[in-house]
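note to self: dont lose this again. the chain is below, predicted strucutre after it. 419 aa total, dont forget to put it in the shared folder this time
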Amino acid sequence: MKVHIIGNISCPTDPENTADAFNTYSIKMAKLLSNRFQIVFYGTAEYSHIFDKHNRSSKNPINFIIVNCLNDFQDVIKTGLKFNSGEYLIKGFQEKEKVTNQTRLSIRDSLASCSTQGDVVLTLFDHYIFQNVYSKVHIVDLFSFSISFHFQFRNRIFSSPHQEKYVAEVSWCEPYVNYINPTYSEYKLKSSDWFSEKSEYDVRKNFVTIFPPFDHNDFHFNQKKKISIDGPYLYLARIQEWKGIDVFMVLAKKFPAKTFWIAGQTELRGNFMRIQHCTGYHVYYDLDEYPNVKYWGFANTELRKKLLFESSCLIQPTCYVEPFGLNVVEAMFSGTPVIAPDRGGFQSTVTTDNGFLYEYNDYKDNTIEKISSLIDRITEINPKKTRKNAIKRFSKETILPQIEEYISSFEGKEIDNFL
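---
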């Protein structure tokens, strides 16, 4: 049985220069699972070397299938948007749709020719690529958001057992699943007459919650790490309103004696930093008015390690329901306390051992007040205990066997992909 892994088809498969969690996670999963399964990975020609080092030492080398090349992204590049910018990852536009559709067709054809009956496909992003293999392979929605295009799939790995109630409407699903209300620990569904005829057991039997796996060696840590109420306080995310960057900037203004760091791809015009808002317009912050703020730009792997370790606290004031929040757990592996809202994946990851949850409120002033009350408490968190707890709960040694067991459960089973 082969396992096919597909990441974000709208981005090149670049492990360094994309901020997209889908691609970084799919690359990690391919390497981890190759010890147990034969892996087929679909990606960009120029990055087919990303598994070379791994393949030289592995008994089961990863088969890299080329489905696009950087030249296919030329029209996108001409727009001036960076692949590692939040604006590119979120925004829909003609040039991006063109290359996405081309890649979709390429993966669809490659998957049909490379797969055999009973294989498993782990998909993180797309639905249409399975048109030719619905009855041939087991399709698993990995790192499931439950708000994406394919939540009629029966086989799903959720990234967190706690997700606040929200409703996502999909008008084109077959059968028409109109509303899904994914509180993961108590999964219930509201839908069409067809869907309501399904029993709760039938709906849930191939749903499972498994945290993403982490390698503690990927993060810097020193037993002498100290936490200071003076900072630095780190923001490490897309430079967008719905990630909470505007809240972070207000906090920086409120505490001028403390140091604040920002890392993420955005445009700088002189010393003016652009922030994308939910409505599509942009706001520019004059960093000269924030002398206690340092903007680091996009954080590649090494800079990310440095910032996570050297920070005294990661503040993640996300305005939407995060399905997991990878950077929060990365901070924990670095021994760094976390402040985050009390909803979504943070409810499963942030504890009194590693940080603080604040009561989320749509009113920004209330959010700032709640975070402000927690900032001076970060010295209560023990860095060594934080890292130890992260290794126990989220390390690959803990998580990988769970994923392997789930994938292995499909061996010999009848293909049954849809609810």
